[in-house]
Write a structure and sequence with these properties.
Blueprint lengths: L3 H9 L14 H4 L7 H7 L2 H13 L5 H17 L4 E5 L12 E2 L1 E3 L5 E3 L3 H5 E2 L19 E5 L6 E3 L2 E10 L8 H19 L9 E15 H6 L1 H6 L24 H16 L4 E6 L5 E6 L2 E2 H21 L2 E4 L13 E9 L12 H20 L1 H7 L21 E2 L2 H11 L8 H11 L3 H6 L10 E3 L4 E3 L9 H29 L3 H15 L12 H10 L7 H4 L6 H10 L4 H55 L2 H41 L3 H12 L1 H16 L10 H6 L2
Parallel strand pairs: 1-8, 15-16
Antiparallel strand pairs: 1-2, 3-4, 5-6, 6-8, 7-8, 9-11, 9-12, 9-13, 9-14, 10-11, 14-17, 16-17
Helix pairs in contact: 4-5, 7-17, 10-11, 12-17, 12-18, 14-18, 17-18, 17-21, 22-23, 22-24, 22-25, 23-24, 23-25
The chain binds adenosine-5'-diphosphate (ADP) and magnesium ion.
């Protein structure tokens, strides 16, 4: 009977690419065909309903019940025309996955017949049981109900035969139980604050949207291997496994020619995504073998977040059609790169201006500088919260692991813009002579567009880098929901812009400064105050860790401790002032994140215990017995002297294997003990910290011994698919 590993190999090697051909030649023929977009709405809705929905999207106006009925009726007709049989409120609970409960359109009419029904009430609100989703103690058992409510700003879509309606998910008492609710509130706050600041420069601005362009990294592994590795199946990452002799050291995978099986998967995923209006544009090989990336064109942040969640769901489904599993864990394989999800972020006005892109005139550049400097100051003030927003059990393996930025938040802006900020910092401030103003406008502010053209230096080691017309948050993990960092970043920016407006208006009112003088003065002050967060050097080096500590920047590698920032005074105050989260909501979220952290480590620890006890140690013992048998027989047929020279290495090996087996078994027992102690801890923060300090610390010990055994033991006996097989079999 061959081992599991060889069965997996048999199934996998030589697997033919599953050819995929999109039905249309050009993407424009089917892009958005399954989205209830402007075109579909115009076709299927009354003009009154059409206007109301757009008004709600643009200005947040409420939709009346009567209009909701009209929208529902149009939506139903449209969905039925695409073959939909069911509808669902589609939402993003704090599990990290998307949630859906399908209801059929059909309803018996009472006379033995049936009709398809979908009313405004069904569109607007549903009441799923909130008790089965993470709620951080918000839900008491007597108020188990939660409800989902339609988010008209993210268009409905038909996937398969189901009409999916993007919704928020809140408790019966109105507290957010999902990712979307606080995100929408943060986006509203940044819209209001940014619009106010824009009025200094352009009175026509009356709406500012945050924009997000995500980049999704992932691994593709053949499903036969996936099933043969309990750690991949249950924890999404390989808990043991020696690095292959050849990994990524030759740099031959990045941007390399995409393997045919992978490309067929990508083609189908692109097709499914584009039907649903997800504007995926770029696909390529990433740094590690079997690692890839997809990136769309950026969109309004709420829609972009929904699209990323939907995309991850699609990726999983389509991967299965091609006998792959798509791994979105941040670190599926040790010793090669893990996966991130860059969040490219900017702000755009209704007048079509990107506020983080320099313009053509000094005035538009002053507007750019205003938003640019305020972004830096916002990140400076809430660096710890931004760090917390990207913290998870998975991402813990990436941060600071020489492939992703460390857990220190810093901002990279490039040489040229650093010079501009230095110049601004050194201006006089306060009232300026006409000459000073002209000089500033022509020689500093006026030079920015030219400067940026050759500002091509890209610092890949920075967690938050300015890349010409946007900031790129690079520290987020591949499995994360972008809503978390986006909620935090946009809240921080909103708070900052409100402060900025107050500061500028005060200078104008109290000191009698002109508007541009006041703006320059405040920017100058902010540049000074937030200087510590700016770092242009190598973020991976140890020198930076020392330097950052001197600057007072935090470097917290443990997720449970980093999460404290979710409930710090500065955070609670900001979230409450902006109406993004109440104290209760922030505390609940904190608790959910801690719970999710320790449960993930708990699962990994159990799986690792099983692997050690059921796979690794028995295999090692078996192989050791083979050696012992062999040595015993050598002894039988040889004289003492010959035996001693011939069997020396094998005897050493037997001892070595024994030592490693003991080490694994002892560590496993100690780990179980540590888990018991952690489980007995009531306080969830303390518990999560115990898991980090005392349970997780055994993972590397067990893995080290197991990986050594993998190299010693007969290849034919090793039960788990090896890295070289999983990463290089195409
Ligand atoms: P890279 O960073 O890989 O060199 P690009 O700079 O072309 O690639 O863009 C990466 C991502 O940034 C894409 O998803 C793109 O849509 C997004 N992006 C570009 N401009 C903006 C913007 N103004 N706001 C948000 N995202 C943006
Ligand atoms: Mg990028």
């Amino acid at each position: 009977m061959p081992t599991v590993r060889f069965l997996a190999l048999e199934e996998t090697i030589g697997r033919k690419p599953q050819h995929f051909e999109a039905p249309g030649t050009h993407v424009s023929e089917y892009f958005g065909s399954h989205v209830f977009n402007q075109k579909a709405m115009r076709q299927y809705m009354t003009s009154e309903a059409f206007k109301a929905v757009n008004d709600s999207i643009e200005n947040g106006t409420k939709i009346s019940r009567d209009i909701a009925d009209q929208v529902a009726s149009g939506m139903k007709a449209w969905a039925l025309s695409l073959g939909a049989t069911h509808y669902t409120h589609w939402f993003q609970p704090l599990t990290g996955a998307t949630a859906e409960k399908h209801d059929s359109f059909f309803e018996p009419t009472g006379n033995g017949e049936a009709m398809e029904k979908f009313s405004g009430g069904m569109l607007v609100q549903q009441e799923p049981d909130a008790s089965s989703f993470p709620n951080g103690g918000i839900r008491n058992t007597f108020e188990a109900r939660g409800y989902t409510a339609w988010d008209p700003t993210s268009p409905a879509f038909v996937f398969g035969t189901t009409l999916c309606i993007p919704t928020v998910f809140v408790s019966y008492t109105g507290e957010a139980l999902d990712y979307k609710t606080p995100l929408l509130r943060a986006l509203q706050a940044v819209d209001a604050a940014a619009t106010d600041v824009c009025k200094y420069f352009d009175k026509n601005v009356n709406k500012v949207n945050a924009t997000l362009g995500w980049e999704q990294e992932y691994f593709l592994v053949d499903e036969a291997y996936f099933h043969a590795r309990p750690d991949l199946t249950l924890a999404g990452r390989a808990l043991v496994g020696h690095a292959p002799a050849k990994g990524q050291q030759l740099d031959d995978h990045y941007f390399g020619s995409i393997p045919e099986r992978a490309i067929e998967f990508m083609k189908e995923l692109e097709y499914e995504s584009r039907k649903l209006g997800i504007p995926v544009k770029t696909r390529h090989n990433e740094v590690a073998p079997a690692q890839y990336e997809f990136a769309p064109v950026f969109e309004e942040a709420n829609v972009a977040v929904d699209h990323n969640s939907l995309f991850m769901d699609l990726m999983e489904k389509v991967a299965r059609r091609h006998n792959f599993r798509a791994l979105v864990h941040e670190k599926p394989f040790a010793n090669i790169n893990g996966s991130g999800k860059h969040n490219n972020w900017s702000l755009a006005t209704n007048t079509g201006v990107n506020l983080l892109a320099p313009g053509k005139t000094p005035m538009s550049n002053l507007m750019f500088l205003t938003f640019f400097v305020n972004s830096i100051k916002a990140v400076y003030k809430h660096a710890d919260l931004i760090r917390a927003s990207i913290g998870s059990a998975g991402n813990e393996h990436r941060l600071g692991a020489n492939e992703a930025p460390p857990a220190i938040i810093s901002v990279f802006i490039g040489d040229q813009l650093s010079k501009v900020l230095d110049q601004l910092e050194n201006i006089g401030g306060g009232k300026m002579t006409p000459e000073e103003k002209t000089d500033l406008k022509l020689n500093v502010v006026g030079k920015i567009p030219e400067i940026l053209l050759d500002n091509t230096d890209r610092n890949r080691t920075s967690p938050f880098a300015f890349t010409g017309n946007k900031f790129e948050l690079r520290a987020a993990g591949s499995a994360s929901n972008c809503a978390q960092p986006m909620t935090v970043l946009n809240s921080a920016m909103a708070e900052q812009l409100i402060d900025f407006k107050t500061d500028v208006d005060t200078l104008i009112a109290k000191d009698g400064l002109k508007k541009d003088e006041a703006i320059f003065s405040v920017l100058k002050q902010y540049i000074k105050e937030s200087k510590a967060i700016r770092f242009e050097g190598d973020g991976y080096g140890d020198a930076w860790k020392e330097e950052a500590a001197k600057r007072g920047l935090n470097n917290e590698p443990s997720t449970p401790r980093a999460l404290d920032a979710y409930v710090s005074d500065a955070t609670l105050q900001m979230f409450e002032n902006l109406n993004v989260m109440s104290k209760r909501e922030a505390e609940a979220r904190h608790e959910i994140l801690l719970e999710s952290y320790f449960m993930k480590i708990q699962i990994e620890s159990r799986v690792l215990g099983d692997l050690a006890g059921n796979h690794i140690v028995p295999t090692a013992i078996k192989y050791q017995n083979t050696l012992i048998d062999n040595v015993q027989r050598l002894k039988d047929i040889m004289d003492e002297a010959t035996f001693e020279t011939v069997a020396k290495e094998q005897l050493e090996m037997i001892k070595d294997i024994s030592a490693r087996i003991s080490k694994i078994l002892a560590s496993k027992d100690a780990m179980v003990q540590a888990r018991k102690e952690a489980n007995a801890q009531e306080d969830v923060r303390e518990k999560a910290i115990l898991y980090y300090d005392n349970v997780k610390s055994y993972f590397d010990v067990i893995r080290y011994e197991s990986d050594k055994l993998e190299l010693m033991i007969d290849d034919e006996q090793w039960p788990l698919p090896k890295f070289r097989e999983m990463l290089f079999t195409r």
